[in-house]
Amino acid sequence: MSTRVITKPKKSVIDRQSKESWLNAALKALASGGIDKVRVESLAKNLGVTKGSFYWHFKDREQFLDELLNFWAEQSTQTVIANPDYPTDSRARVRAVAEDIVRRDLGGM
After folding, report:
1. 23's torsion region: left (phi>0), alpha (psi -120 to 50) or beta?
2. Potential cystine with 15: which of 8, 11, 99, 108 (Cβ 3.0-4.6 Å)?
3. CA-CA distance, 41 to 91, in Å (whole number)?
4. What pLDDT shows up at residue 51?
5. What domain count does the chain have?
């Protein structure tokens, strides 16, 4: 009698993308095409997962957009905190923060 080893199917590395992956993908979509580009189906396609992954992390699109705003605010705050060398002039500081956010969120677009 042969011994058969039963193994669990391997999960994809991107199986059920992390909440942060969804939020990062949404930030990029928002920056490149506006709020109309922040759609579950298109984000899932870009991440290579099913829409079920989205609903694993978020109740609905409204909750997702709320969390997206909070995520962006947290990241932006961290950008300011991490860069004490920003200019002291308010306008120059806002410009420097915006440039850093664009570089971070859009890969320099």
Report:
1. alpha
2. 11
3. 38
4. 92
5. 1
Alpha carbons 78 and 74: distance in angstroms, whole number: 6
Q: Is residue 101 part of a domain?
A: yes
How many Cβ atoms from other residues are within 10 Å of residue 16's Cβ? 17
DSSP state of 95: H
Look at the pTM and tell me if it is higher than 0.90: no
Q: What is the mean pLDDT of each run of 10 residues along the chain (109 residues)?
A: 55 62 92 89 94 94 94 83 78 79 64
Q: State residue 95 phi and psi, 5-degree precision.
A: -60, -45
What is the CATH classification number for the domain harbouring 62?
1.10.357.10
Structure tokens at 15: 């199986």
Q: Which domain holds residue 69?
A: 19-106
Contact 38, 26 (CB under 8 A): yes
